[in-house]
Amino acid sequence: MTESITSPWDYAPAPESRDVAGLRPSYRMFVDGEFVDGSGQSLTSVNPATEETLAEVAGASAADVDRAVTAARAAFESTWATMPGSERAKYLFRIARLIQERGRELAVLETLDNGKPVKESRDTDVPTAAAHFFHHAGWADKLDHAGYGANPRPLGVAGQVIPWNFPLLMLAWKIAPALACGNTVVLKPAETTPLTALVFAEICQQAGLPAGVVNILPGAGDIGAELVAHPGVDKVAFTGSTEVGKSIQHRLAGTATRLTLELGGKAANIVFDDAPLDQAVEGVVNGGFFNQGHVCCAGSRLLVQESIAEELLDRLRTRVSALRVGDPLDKNTDVGAINSAEQLSRITELADTGEAEGARRWTSPCPLPSQGYFFAPTVFSEVHQSMRVAGEEVFGPVLSVLTFRTPEEAVTKANNTPYGLSAGIWTEKGSRILWAAQRVRAGVVWANTFNRFDPTAPFGGYQESGFGREGGRAGLEAYLDV
Amino acid sequence: MTKTYKLYIGGAFPRSESGRVHPVHDARGRFLANAAQASRKDLRDAVAAARKAFDGWSGATAYNRGQVLFRVAEMLEGRREQFIAETAAVEDLSVEGATAAVDTAIDRMVWYAGWTDKITTVLGTTNPVAGPYFSFSVPEPTGVVGALAPRQSSLLGLLSVVAPVIAAGNTCVVVAGDRALPAITLSEVLATSDLPGGVINLLTGHVAELAPWLATHADVNALDLTGAPETLRPELERSASETVKRVLPVGRGEPDWTREPSLKRLRTFTETKTVWHPVGT
């Protein structure tokens, strides 16, 4: 059965026009309502699908961090925190609308900069980012009803550092609740994906947002470290690796700075023997390979009940073989480019340990482009819990398959991780879904679906996947002095 | 050129099937226009249109409803000058007073636009029941709501009555009396926003004649009688009991519409649904 489909079906190319992205040769950072030159090391943004240079981007220095934090403080005190919530709401509504209006441009730019398939940036990243602003716009004048007591106050200046896997969406998750609650922000996009954040800065200008409320500082990890440790920052929000998250928590220990962390994960996708198999296969593929597996909540550990393991693996390999890997700008592409050469070598190295440690490696026979950073979807079976591919976050299109016999064993194995961000449960039995959901130590549990995100639904982890939530009523707490 | 003012039913602008019109005057008694005078048949048509629109509107995502309400606010703002002129005429307000009322009305619409996807998180809950069950309770729209437009505040009052009804996912039939001009213009705004036809149906006419028919109509689930004459209210509430309609509790006279509303309207026009499901392997 696995050999019946050895190459993707032929599809005529359906490329999205890169002209839509309005790509410019250089981008500047955004401080106090103006685009300015940075005094730090400038960055070069590369298209990971072609390895060509996209643009030069101004890089921030420690002095720029200081300037931006000062501007954010001034805006906080003079306008933003004192403005009625109903007025803040109107700016956020307008930003949501502007993201929708410029959606196609943002989607193509995101795909160029990040390497993700344009159908994902178009159908997930951009619309969800707009929805996030729309939802939080409505909170700005309803904070009294959010369950934190009457008239909850903002924290002040938020320093926010975001990753490269969902550049615009992570920006929205950070900026929308911060602004709705009355804080001002200094945000550092990831070193490799700063472009949509700088177009967002333009959107802030178009929305007439008061100067200094949003500041965007491109830079590498050192600038992120400057920002989170700046004494003028009242609240730090970080999304990224557990390793960096721990160092930030360590750095802020003993200070009054408030902190929320959204870190790594090694989610279990548990498939019981009564699961609807075709639906489960789709969900497992989505969980493991969506966004090239660059997802902190990726379902990278497949736990399948022993009696159906063989059949599920068969169907899984068939389905994965049909994934189209290649040009992210092609609207038919399912799996795009790995974001950077560095990430590609990390994935390659960790995948090799799987084989070395005795797991059975299966690689999709899909053709890969000759240029750019690509990694063929890979499934490891016969994986044991002690192997690195079972315990460490790969952050790439690599799925590890383990088996279990009883529901108790499934839950025990699912919880055998220092992480706790998300989990998936596949079974037709409702009571079992709820039973497993109660026992799994994870912040988000998807049942008979996977990778669902909505601004009304809080997202965040247990244990070393971080603390604090983003989205919904619970997400507001991170930006209120409560 | 004086415009022809018609009813708004199911997204269309019919004349009254009865062929009746009644003159509308400004606050100083000067003739403004002939508005359609709705009949009992028009009212039944309006309830039928509201019922027909209910499945689609209540079934739409809260996000979608929020965007539609926000669009209505945008359209309202586009007609700001017209609303100011009409509000000033029918309520005998200064331009400043009318401007303040219209701007607050637009803000009210924006406020409720933000409520659509927050009603459930604020009013819903999971229930920590003592047993192996997962139990949760969520607010769901009541159905078709009949409302009488407030007699004093022609636009701000009207929107403050109508917006929570539709924000919560209900559809409605609104009856406007003597100060109907801004209400009629509102129906023209609604028709050019993204609001599906039938979600709001607007009848002009004699409130004392139409209100009892609304209160006795068996397919109306709830009533907002804020705009009812005090003398009429007890009888309308008695009629409501025939089909156990929910009646919004209101005080005497009109509330101060400029104040930020409580959640009372959202609560009154939603039902709490509790769901139980066993937990176990």
Automatic annotation (TrEMBL), chain A:
<dbReference type="InterPro" id="IPR029510">
    <property type="entry name" value="Ald_DH_CS_GLU"/>
</dbReference>
<dbReference type="GO" id="GO:0004029">
    <property type="term" value="F:aldehyde dehydrogenase (NAD+) activity"/>
</dbReference>
<keyword id="KW-0560">Oxidoreductase</keyword>
<feature type="domain" description="Aldehyde dehydrogenase">
    <location>
        <begin position="35"/>
        <end position="481"/>
    </location>
</feature>
<feature type="active site">
    <location>
        <position position="262"/>
    </location>
</feature>
<protein>
    <submittedName>
        <fullName>Aldehyde dehydrogenase (NAD+)</fullName>
        <ecNumber>1.2.1.3</ecNumber>
    </submittedName>
</protein>
<dbReference type="InterPro" id="IPR016161">
    <property type="entry name" value="Ald_DH/histidinol_DH"/>
</dbReference>
<dbReference type="InterPro" id="IPR016163">
    <property type="entry name" value="Ald_DH_C"/>
</dbReference>
<dbReference type="InterPro" id="IPR015590">
    <property type="entry name" value="Aldehyde_DH_dom"/>
</dbReference>
<dbReference type="Pfam" id="PF00171">
    <property type="entry name" value="Aldedh"/>
</dbReference>
<comment type="similarity">
    <text>Belongs to the aldehyde dehydrogenase family.</text>
</comment>
<dbReference type="InterPro" id="IPR016162">
    <property type="entry name" value="Ald_DH_N"/>
</dbReference>
From TrEMBL, chain B:
<dbReference type="InterPro" id="IPR016161">
    <property type="entry name" value="Ald_DH/histidinol_DH"/>
</dbReference>
<dbReference type="InterPro" id="IPR016162">
    <property type="entry name" value="Ald_DH_N"/>
</dbReference>
<protein>
    <submittedName>
        <fullName>Aldehyde dehydrogenase (NAD+)</fullName>
        <ecNumber>1.2.1.3</ecNumber>
    </submittedName>
</protein>
<keyword id="KW-0560">Oxidoreductase</keyword>
<dbReference type="InterPro" id="IPR015590">
    <property type="entry name" value="Aldehyde_DH_dom"/>
</dbReference>
<feature type="domain" description="Aldehyde dehydrogenase">
    <location>
        <begin position="17"/>
        <end position="247"/>
    </location>
</feature>
<dbReference type="GO" id="GO:0004029">
    <property type="term" value="F:aldehyde dehydrogenase (NAD+) activity"/>
</dbReference>
<dbReference type="Pfam" id="PF00171">
    <property type="entry name" value="Aldedh"/>
</dbReference>
